[in-house]
MYO1B protein (Promerops cafer), 348 residues
Amino acid sequence: QDNSFEQFIINYCNEKLQQIFIELTLKEEQEEYIREGIEWTHIEYFNNAIICDLIENNQTGILAMLDEECLRPGTVTDDTFLEKLNQVCATHQHFESRMSKCSRFLNDTSLPHSCFRIQHYAGKVMYQVEGFVDKNNDLLYRDLSQAMWKANHSLIKALFPEGNPAKINLKRPPTAGSQFKASVATLMKNLQTKNPNYIRCIKPNDKKAAHIFNEALVCHQIRYLGLLENVRVRRAGYAFRQPYEPCLERYKMLCKQTWPHWRGPARAGVEVLFNELGIPEEEFSFGRSKIFIRNPRTLFKLEDLRKQRLEDLATLIEKIYRGWKCRTRFLLMKRCQVVIASWYRRYA
């Protein structure tokens, strides 16, 4: 019920993960159709970049203002931090406090004076400002790091590399918020170099009990997880896409014109292949560098045909090998019979 600094940075990380989910599953997919020249009607979706910017902007972000409060001279309290938020974020559509211009709760006691509210992607969350400054300023003093680095135990020494006298940095250590922000940035950079797969878990009820299905709770989760937009993009788009070269290489045995070798551009070979198989034109589209297949059942059909064709080819290879082996054995026996007969006639 009471959200403080810890929940704030956790929700910030969740926003960043949701942002990369949007980038990879909605934005990037629609941009790929445009790049490939596929006819496409853009599907609107909410991009939470504006919420991430509210938190992490280097000048007007909440974390930046929190660091500024921790560093400035004079009396610094959680109330002065909240006053600064009210000055800088007053007009932001996703920020609310008792003093902000966007707040509809000026006369509502559900939003206390010592709190602010952020409209996250998953819904509104109210944060107690008490403790933000102290928790963000919770630093490990340099002399403590040096003392731990001098320990005889190798594990303890390894946990405090900043205590190494050769690496002493006279700069002020980064705040907890800055460290967390840097860790999140590293995580995002790492994820963007990968091809992640997502598993979305839906909680059927708040009691964690079996055989109870709360429809309102499930619908709420589906909305804030972005599954509705994702399903709309998937249903309007194509379930499978692959460059022409590997597609032709995988399915070329299904057409006599492309098997065993196709002489010409890969796209032309794929066109000949799909025309030969009689796949309806609405089931696929040709992009600049890829073939796009709309429904999974078309892909399943191709895989079934390929599996059957491989079995037929295996049978053909086995038949030819057995014929060659039998013919070789027959010719050998025939030569042996001629030799035996010639020697028999010589001594008969």
